[in-house]
Amino acid sequence: GVKISDLPSALTAIDNLHERGVQCVVITSMHLEGSDSIFLLASLSSSSQPPQRLKITIPKLEATFTGTGDMLAALILSWFQLTDDLKTVIENATATLQAVLAN
């Protein structure tokens, strides 16, 4: 296993999963030292192209939530039924989750 402590180690972990055949990897709620935000990393691999990669900065909300990871996973899966564009999928899924949490 790879201990994820920064962006390079997260990318190494993602690459390791891709090498094992996992096509889509999403790391949610990654905290980077010195930042007040959380980050989402996503990577989608295919045999014919380099992986699509995306890093999204998400403002940290001062609240406690339960089930957000499950909801985000369901939203990502739902959006992948409509498009295989990683950027569209992740942006729409995180925007929906943020809207729910804001209300």
Automatic annotation (TrEMBL):
Key word Repressor present: no
InterPro entries the UniProt entry points to: PyrdxlKinase, Ribokinase-like
Entry annotated with the keyword Nucleotide-binding: yes
EC number: 2.7.1.35
Domain of life: Eukaryota
Family statement: Belongs to the pyridoxine kinase family.
Identification of the protein by name: pyridoxal kinase
Organism taxonomic ancestry: Eukaryota, Cryptophyceae, Pyrenomonadales, Geminigeraceae, Hanusia
